[in-house]
Specification:
This protein is 54% helix and 3% strand. With 149 residues, it is mainly alpha-helical. Strands 1-2 form a two-stranded antiparallel ribbon. The longest helix is centred in the C-terminal third of the chain and has 14 residues.
Length: 149
């Protein structure tokens, strides 16, 4: 597996639970951006609503981030760039609160509940332990590449 251009037609991006700089979602977002640039994003979408939660929180334009990814920067270099270019300088406490909220986020309105239920019914219809979006993404990634729910 190569991280500078992951092939998301062959394996999923990193879990949304994986953190970089204390931020969940970010490593997954970087994987999807790199794969998009390489034309290997499969069914994954860069700058999806979950990515945008992170990008809006720090104040980074998704196209600017993608431009930096095109320069073949490592995760560490991307974190440095984000720290320098984010419109919002977040404190460790704010980052921890964002991480906690992201990890616990569950569907709340009719639209997100419908999407959540539809995806769960395809990925793991008999599972009763899928509560958060991170739970759902993890099981969907697993099943999408041959795992049994």
């Amino acid at each position: 597996m190569t991280y500078n251009a992951p092939d998301l037609t062959q394996h999923p991006p990193r879990s949304a639970r994986v953190k970089l700089g204390g931020y969940p979602i970010l490593p997954r977002c970087l994987d999807k951006g790199r794969a998009t640039l390489a034309g290997k994003n499969g069914e994954y979408h860069y700058a999806c609503p979950m990515d945008m939660r992170f990008l809006d929180f720090v104040g980074i334009d998704p196209e600017a981030l993608k431009k930096e990814l095109a320069a073949n920067k490592s995760d560490s270099e991307m974190m440095e760039w984000i720290d320098k270019n984010a419109r919002f300088r977040r404190s460790p406490i704010e980052i921890a609160a964002f991480a906690h909220a992201a990890e616990q986020r569950a569907p709340g309105d009719t639209e997100t509940r419908g999407y959540f239920n539809e995806l769960q019914s395809k990925s793991a219809p008999k599972r009763e332990d899928i509560f958060t979006f991170f739970d759902l993404l993890d099981v969907d990634d697993y099943v999408s590449f041959g795992g049994k729910p």
